[in-house]
Amino acid sequence: MSRDHIDAGLLLALAVLALLVPYIWSGYEIKLATTITIQAGLAVALGFVVGPAGLVSLGHAAFYGLAAYLFAMLAPASEPANLLNTLLVVVCGTAVCAAVVGAISIRSRGLYFILMTLAFGQLGYIYFRPEVRLPGLDISLDGSAQFYHFVSLIVFAAFALVWWLRRSAFGSLLVAARDNEMRIRAFGYSPYALRLVAFVISGAIAGTMGYLSAAQNGFVAPETLAWHNSATALVMVLIGGKDTTSGPAIGAILLLLAEELLQRATEHWLIGIGLIIVVIVIAAPQGIVPYLARLFPARRAQDA
Amino acid sequence: MVGAYLAFAVVQHLASFWLALPLAIVLGLLLGAVLERFLLARLEGADHLSQVLLSFGLILLINEAQRIIFGNDAHGVEVPAPLNFSIPLSETFAYPAYRLFICAIGIVFVIALGLVMGRTRIGMMLRASAENRTMARALGVDAKLIYLGVTAAGIACAVLAGVIAAPIASVYPGMGDQVLILSFVVIVLGGIGSLTGALVGALLLGVVDAFGKQFFPDFAAFLVYVAMIAVLIARPQGLFRGTGA
Hints:
Chain A is an all-alpha fold.
């Protein structure tokens, strides 16, 4: 089995798991599963720019939070918001912002790019001050189980999109531009344009997740945009494996589940998280999913 | 942050601020050497990102360890007696001597580091292994030892800085996080690998922040980030392009 097979297999397994969750658990566990699913979506979106595009963004939480605030501005004060209209406008709005931020930031590379996205993210964090309460959506979702199905549907659609993009010619070009910029230029492509498109897609997906999270929680706080959240998402991407689609999702699930369980057990749960991160980095510097792929070596290694 | 807590612990138990300084250097060197030898060295050749991730995990560990040992409260450290006076600048305005002492240490440190990096054999080997590790190794530089030394010395400096900062900052869990992001911004803004750059970056951010707070209190937080973006738009590789990245 190659890394691609493992990757696709894990995605399918996650999808089956997501389908089953409401039948196994209820109440609080479903809310938790909803949160984790949304975070996994954000991590996968970030993974798409960190991995193939080689752009480490510390501003993705800002797109996520921006979408939540856009939703708050659009939504009528008293009645439930129209799902289709608001979602469409929010996603387009985030994409436009991602395009502006990306167009300026992508001129820089490496650490300088991180700093650019950090600065833009923090600007957003400072700009959106008050905490806002939100109305619900106008679709009739009976209870948390149905809302969970709705969230899973959108998140897994995003997973499928990212998985397809990574395998497409566009994905290959991104990887090629990351590994050998000069050669891609010589072939007549613009690495800048490729990266910008990837950044905008990723920002728009992050925005979608922010929208879902706002709809779930019923309020947005400015802290959503702060760089800490981008860093947390980045940790999820890296421990899961930035060069796979399922990796960031697995990283998100692992980290959030560990957080939940450790918090129940001890006040000093951060020590546990720290240990998990250190062990994973040392044992599997490429991330969990690539590590798994190596545990099951290719049966036809000589062909590969 | 470890440094600030060290200062707190030493002042509590040994009642001497000055004793904390040499202790900080020893502890920092030990900590750095252990980290490099057992953790960072394993990531040799791996992504920068893995190293970042590793240090992030370590931050969580150390933060929580401190919370367990010292509790959640904020602590204060007394300014050491010989420096606990103020220098009057005008009739209404005085400047605490301890802050001047910090400025002096900062200046001495920058000059010393500049001399070591630019004028000595060690500095030369260090720059060489940062720029081209394989070549430096081929020429007989023990790059492993250099990395060990740099990590240890770097952490010792940070611990020392924590001790010195303890009397003017309050000592609490998580106090390092703010400094961390600020240091990162300063280094990148100035240009990675450039000492002058780090210095200019630090001054620029400090001045923008201070004047912003004074003259445009509503926009001060904005100004710092706008300045960062402006600098990076004008010079996408930082103010002073350094050698190794």
